[in-house]
Design a protein that fits this description.
The chain has 17 helices and 10 strands. The protein has 741 residues and is mostly helical.
Length: 741
């Protein structure tokens, strides 16, 4: 238990002891030392003695506190009993007031009526219990039959599993070797099929390679044939007239150019140079090899003309330019059904200028387009896309370029010739410093010559063709012949592989036939196992049907039992309610009949509870008195131990003062007394400091008195007198302890 205490005056207690020590200072130094040691021992013993008294008082206080707590609990319990007895007494008084003969008779009659209700409910419970017993018997029988059917079903299922396993074993024995042989045969047949497919594929490759060789040879032959006609020569007069016109497209210059041009009989010249060659195979104008031959041929014709005209910059041809030309013609002519010339040459839609603008933006370059009658030449007949040959295509290119030179007057104002002979610009549009030509034929058979300005960004000049037509054609033929040779070698290897694969198929077929002739006994075992399995399956189906029937019967019996049990529980609940009502009525009759006795008993119980509360209250008060006494004793003991500690502290400080002086300065008792008197103020300060260091002392704690200013000396007699006063008033200023649990 913690205690809070306020202490005012403690430090002055024991000053008289210190004064006694000062008085003895007139004795020898050895005697003084002995006296202080004895004083210290005495004060320490006093501290120990008073602390023992505190411990004893604390124990007595704790015991008294426990007694108070117990007494308080008894008072609380007695008070609760009085409250309960009071309620019972009130109920008994009320019961006595209604305990008339009429009420007793009425309650007795109600009991009799309720007894009849209870008997009827009890009979209903008994009857329903019988029904439940019968239903339980039926359910138990159904459960037994269902359990038996389940066991039969499990047995039948096990028989099916056993028969299935036996059949699998028999079939495995039958098919093990046959399966291996069949797998071998299947693998051999698959290998033979793959080899046959490879042979067919390689044969097709050989056929294609041979066709490519034939096509390349045709190109070589065609190029060789047109080598003598792959130039168009212009007269000096024509060149002069054309330059004058392009420099100044006036009416007079146009008329002069037309006059010079009309005498050129280039149509008859073309007909003489290009003779139909029926031996040439039909080709696809969009085939890259054909496209290369056409674009190189066209560029050579144009560059020869530009050279005659006096220009040193030449056009180029490339695979990239040809791909762009094919893409443009498909997107803006074929897909849009754009017929540039129509059927007569004068009813067409003309150039798709919007398409040219859009494609120029797409490729980020400058584009110009020339177009010619192509395969539809009104001069030399018409060749269709399905029947055209390379000879026809070369003829169309030659005819178109020649036509652009000599038959391009009228509304076009010689714009085709202008596109051929301008340098750095085409038709007045700048940005044609590196022209590459792409050639493509549309689905109507008309030829399109797309002129692109090639840059590093659009890469239209990449994959450029050699303009040496004969060398390019020969290289094409050489490559095609190498491809054919490789295809023939691969075909030879695949043919050999096919022969080996076919032999493996024959061997696998022989092995399988031999195994099939020696498997009669295994087949009989398989047949027997299958019969056994079918029998087991039939038995299983029978057991399954029985099990399902018994399970249905069990489920029905369970439902019936649950229903009758629910009815029994309802009847039991009705009986319990009736019995409770009967007990309540019987209790009412008993209370009314015995009202006088119940009232007397309640009155006696109440009075006894009040008496018990009185006794408990007295015990509590006595315990509280004992607790107050124990508290006072504990307070006195604690104050005594504090005084003893203070005296011991002062004695220790005085001893330190005496023992701290130099031994050489203690020459006589008179000197010691004088020194102590002279240094009284120092001693006083030391004691005051020790008092201030004790945290238990209050702010108004007494200090050793001083007189005069700081340089005045304290009187030894005043010190002694103050010590006596401290002894007389040592207990003054203690406040009563506040005990906190």
């Amino acid at each position: 238990m913690n205690k809070k205490k306020m202490i005012r005056l403690t430090a002055l207690v024991g000053v008289a002891t210190a004064t006694g020590v000062v008085a003895e200072a007139n004795q020898a130094h050895a005697a003084t030392t002995t006296t202080t040691e004895t004083t210290n021992q005495t004060t320490n013993a006093s501290v120990e003695s008073t602390q023992a008294a505190v411990d004893a008082a604390q124990s007595a206080f704790d015991t008294a506190q426990t007694s108070v707590d117990n007494a308080q609990a008894n008072v609380t319990s007695a008070s609760n009993n009085v409250t309960s007895a009071s309620a019972i007494l009130s109920s008994a008084i009320a019961n006595k007031e209604v305990a008339t003969s009429e009420n007793i008779a009425s309650a007795t009659s109600a009991v009799s009526s309720q007894a009849v209700v209870v008997a009827s409910a009890s009979q209903a419970v008994s009857e329903q219990a019988g029904v439940v017993s019968a239903a339980a018997s039926v359910q138990a029988s159904a459960q037994a039959e269902a359990t038996s059917a389940s066991a039969s079903l499990s047995s039948a299922s096990a028989n099916v599993a056993s028969a299935t396993s036996a059949l699998s074993a028999a079939e495995a024995a039958l098919t093990s070797d046959q399966s291996t042989a069949a797998n071998n045969l299947s693998a051999a047949e698959s290998a033979a099929s793959s080899a046959s497919a490879a042979v067919s594929s390689d044969q097709a490759a050989v056929d294609n390679a041979q066709a490519a060789v034939a096509s390349a040879q045709a190109i070589v032959d065609a190029v060789a044939e047109v080598q003598s006609s792959d130039v168009i020569n212009m007269s000096a007069a024509y060149i002069t007239a054309l330059k004058n016109y392009l420099a100044n497209p006036s009416s007079a210059n146009a008329a002069a150019l037309q006059e010079v041009a009309k005498g050129a009989d280039y149509v008859n010249e073309l007909q003489q140079k290009f003779k139909s060659d029926a031996s040439l195979d039909v080709v696809d104008p969009s085939d890259p090899a054909v496209q290369e031959a056409l674009s190189v041929y066209a560029v050579n014709l144009i560059n020869h003309l530009r050279n005659q005209y006096g220009l040193t910059t030449a056009f180029g041809a490339s695979a990239n330019a040809n791909v762009a030309a094919l893409d443009f013609v498909k997107k803006y002519y074929d897909d849009k059904n754009w017929n540039i010339f129509g059927t007569t040459g004068s009813d067409g839609q003309g150039h798709n200028k919007n398409g040219l603008d859009a494609y120029a933006v797409q490729l980020n370059t400058s584009i110009a387009e020339d177009a010619g009658s192509g395969l539809t030449t009104w001069v030399n007949g018409k060749a269709t896309m399905a029947t055209t040959t390379l000879h026809n295509l070369l003829y169309a290119v030659y005819s178109d370029i020649a036509t652009m030179l000599f038959d391009d007057g009228g509304t076009n104002n010689w714009s085709h010739a202008q596109s051929i002979f301008e340098d750095g610009t085409i038709l007045g549009t700048d940005g044609f410093n590196n022209v590459y030509l792409g050639v493509a034929f549309d689905k109507y058979g008309y030829a399109h010559y797309e002129l692109y300005n090639a840059t590093e960004g659009n890469q239209l000049g990449n994959n450029a063709y050699s303009l040496d037509v004969q060398t390019a054609a020969q290289t094409l033929l050489t490559n095609a012949q190498a491809t054919l040779a490789s295809a023939k070698a691969s075909l030879q290897r695949m043919t050999t592989n096919l022969m080996v694969a076919k032999a493996a198929v024959v061997a696998a077929q022989d092995q399988l036939a031999a195994l099939e002739n020696s498997s009669a006994s295994d087949s009989a075992a398989v047949t027997a196992a299958r019969t056994q399995l079918e029998s087991a399956k039939t038995s299983y189906q029978t057991a399954l049907a029985t099990y399902q029937q018994k399970e249905a019967a069990l489920e029905k019996a369970n439902d019936e039992l649950a229903n009758v049990q629910a009815s029994l529980e309802a009847a039991q609940a009705t009986l319990a309610t009736a019995k409770a009502k009967l007990a309540e009525l019987e209790e009412t009759v008993a209370n009314l009949t015995n009202a006088d006795q119940l009232l007397a008993a309640a009155q006696a119980a109440y009075e006894q509870a009040v008496a018990n509360l009185t006794v408990a209250t007295g015990n509590l008060e006595a315990a509280q008195v004992d607790l107050a006494k124990a508290e006072a004793q504990l307070t006195l003991a604690e104050e005594a131990v504090e005084q003893a500690k203070a005296r011991a502290e002062i004695a220790t400080q005085v001893d330190q003062q005496l023992n701290g002086s130099n031994a050489n300065d203690r020459q006589s008792a008179g000197q010691d007394a004088t020194s102590l008197k002279t240094n009284g103020r120092a001693l006083t300060a030391t004691v005051a400091t020790a008092s201030a260091a004790n945290p238990k002392r209050g702010a108004d704690q007494g200090r050793l008195p001083q007189t005069g200013a700081d340089n005045q000396e304290a009187s030894a007699m005043a010190l002694v007198g103050l010590g006596m006063l401290g002894m007389a008033t040592g207990l003054y200023g203690y406040k009563k302890k506040k005990l906190t649990k």
